[in-house]
Amino acid sequence: MVRLKCIIHYDGSQFSGFQIQPEKRTVQGVLERALKKMHKGEEVRIQASGRTDTGVHSFGQTIHFDSPFQIPVKNWKIALNTLLPDDLFVQHAEIVPEGFHARYDVLEKEYRYYVWHQKERDVFKRNYYYQFPYKLNIEAMKAACRYLEGAHDFTTFSSAKATIKGSRERTLYQASCEKRGEEIEFIFRGDGFLYNMVRIIVGVLLDIGQGKREPADIPGLMAAKDRRLVGETVPPQGLYLWRVKYGDENNRAAE
């Protein structure tokens, strides 16, 4: 038995999220069907670094699975991609120690969120950006990002539907906002993320950019631990799971 670790890319536009669901097309479902075909009808269950919602994309989702097949590692990538649809691609495959776990061994995740800042809609970007037509103060948004960095309780910035038990403290190593032409790129790197955390944070940053809030409001919002104090969760199509970092030496090859 060997354990395979794969880095996968997917366009989330036509997926109902990552996690398998009855009667719905999901990333996990499509991957497991391909693996079942490779294994002559035997079920193969995959484990992922985490779930992504409907419409969310990935450049760096990481999965692992076990297989009895002893084949050259380069052939795993070729074989899987032959069976996968055009919107899902295995970018990297490697054999890892039996104790490796795609979810529990994560040290850091990076998400990016993209806004297309233009008054007129661009139909070709509607599945990959949040199109936002209103005037923004980018410098105020950058100032607000600095308040987000470090260890904080992010309850206010997580979905009220979250079922997590225990601490909601997370550490953000980077929270940044840059505008290049009409594109605004948000980058968030941290040791973990709560449900909808990035999309709620981006919504608050856009409120700050419009002058509805001040950058200095961030600490008070975090201290309140109340999701009702902030606005709506921004749409999923601008969100990308960009990279997942592990402590094993194999991770360097994937990066």
Overview of this protein structure:
The structure is a single chain. With 255 residues, this protein is of the alpha+beta class. The chain has two domains: 2-104, Pseudouridine synthase I, catalytic domain, N-terminal subdomain (Alpha-Beta Plaits); 106-243, Alpha-Beta Plaits (2-Layer Sandwich), CATH 3.30.70.660. The protein is 23% helix and 30% strand. It is built from six helices and ten strands, in the order E-H-E-E-H-E-E-E-H-E-E-E-H-H-E-H. Strands 1, 2, 3, 4, 5, 6, 7, 8, 9 and 10 form a ten-stranded mixed beta sheet that branches. Strand 8 and strand 9 (183-190) form a beta hairpin. Helix 3 (138-148) crosses helix 4. It is globular. Residues 249-255 have low confidence and may be disordered.
Largest sheet: 10 strands, mixed
CATH evolutionary superfamily of the largest domain: Pseudouridine synthase I, catalytic domain, C-terminal subdomain
Task: Give the end-to-end Cα distance, rounded to a whole number of Å.
Answer: 26 Å
The chain-level mean pLDDT equals 94
Give a quick set of tags describing it.
255 residues, alpha+beta, Alpha-Beta Plaits, 2 domains, 10-stranded mixed β-sheet, 6 helices, 10 strands, 23% helix, disordered C terminus
Summarize the structure.
This protein has 255 residues and is α+β, with helices and mostly antiparallel strands. 23% of the residues lie in helices and 30% in strands. The chain has helices spanning 27-38, 73-83, 138-148, 197-209, 218-224, 250-254, and strands spanning 2-10, 47-48, 57-67, 88-96, 106-116, 130-131, 150-153, 169-180, 183-190, 239-246.
